[in-house]
Amino acid sequence: MSDKPTVPQRRPSISFQEDSPQINKQHTGGGSDRRQSMWQGARKSIYSRRLSQAMSYGSRKSSQDIIYPKIRLQNTYRMEPNEDETFKAHKLEPKLYETLESLLKNRVYDANKCALWSKEISQEILKEAKYQMNSSSPRYKIVAHVIIGEAKNQDIRFGSRCLWDNNLDNVASVVYKNNGLYAVATLFAIYFE
Length: 193
Hints:
The chain has helices at 42-58, 89-104, 114-133, and strands spanning 140-150, 170-177, 181-191. By secondary structure, it is α+β, with helices and mostly antiparallel strands. A hairpin with a 3-residue loop joins strand 2 and strand 3 (181-191).
């Protein structure tokens, strides 16, 4: 017998079954009975998902993602408008009446459509008011309010209360009537300091 000590061999940690389809039967070579991965191809799918996510994050930038610095204007320290920049309701009321007349001239009252009509009319009135006031009074905030009702010889009262500066803020109001309906359009102009 020999005096050399024997080196213990590494035992396989799992016994392979030849008929099992789930177990990977490949060996790395070199004569070792080392245990291999049981699931073939599982890591490849994770790698491809991670790669596609990384590619999609990198390619998201577009011209819309670029943030431009906000333009800041210097303060003018003006607390009230010049005389020619004040809101003049008497100049705007005829245009408001023409807008109401053109939009409601051939319409008959329909309770289901009045909500939609009032939204459309208020948007048109805002457009017309901004067009008329754009160059002359740029610092006014404008609010339009439209009420449409059925005309059956009834009495109706409409009122509004506002907390504002009497010298700078103003209101324009127009009433339109035809055989089937009435409309009240009110335009508030509030000076923005």
